[in-house]
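Blinded run. Sample ID left blank on purpose so nobody reads anything into the name before looking at the predicted structure. Input follows.
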Amino acid sequence: MWIYYALKERALFYFSASNPSILTGGMMGESKFEVLQMVPEEVKPKTILIKIPATVTQVTEAMHQGTLTFPVIFKPDMGERGWMVRRIRNEQEAAQYLAEIKIDFIVQELVDLPLEYGVFYVRFPSESNGFVNSITGKEFLSVTGDGRKALQELILQKDRAKIQWQILKNAYRNRLNEILLPGQKLELVSVGNHCLGTTFLNCNHLITDKLSASFDRISKRIDGFYFGRFDLRCASERDLENGKVMIMELNGCGAEPAHIYHPGSSLWNAIKVLIVHWQNLYRVSRENHQRGVPYLPFLEGKRIYYDFRKIKY
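Blinded prediction complete.
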């Protein structure tokens, strides 16, 4: 899919959105915290922003004021594809994170619900109702014991886990010789990102009129939002359909309909999906522009992109 990423990075500048709200998250340089502030309170976890530089004491005091307790999720206020997103279990892990992070970051309540999805929503400004056109299920990286192999061997014999070995050998350094019972499943990474070993699944069969109506209600409460992906957790497929969810992140024009990454999916089908995806983005942008909202200039988009790369790399 390297062809797709090359095209996408170019397209982000040519299809620069006409409203800051639809640039959220997916466009480099946008504040995840500011975007999340626009999401209705009842469907988002507790979240606080930590300004750099900060000490562990300052972070724990801010967590206390925000009624947050370990474990929590730390993630950069500007970021993409799982970069520096971590589950933090204690002050020692918080200190390690502070030693590495170079930009402001978010501390977010750990949403302990079993199902995670990416739900892509589109509404054209000229139309009263929108629709969901992509649902991506997420299968977290895990191994299953057989009563004989140690955890290290289970990790190294699984392709997706082996790629994450440098991270996993540190995270599970005290358990690498542990032998899992037959059928015992161990979830290795609980962050639902492709780059961290999560398998993305095509769950478009869950799209119904009722589901689209549920996300219409949520989306219309977000001022200026027409196009983007909700990354969320829920307790069941029924709760998803009814909009009973917890939205951990909202991504805009840089986000993709990630169901195209389903194992074994056709590259050509993915290209067709992306063509429709960019056509929708273009139409939203044009219609907003006709309503008087200016386009983001090409040079400004380029500057944001390179500023972000300097921070990340």
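Unblinding after everyone has recorded impressions. The two ends are 22 Å apart (CA to CA).
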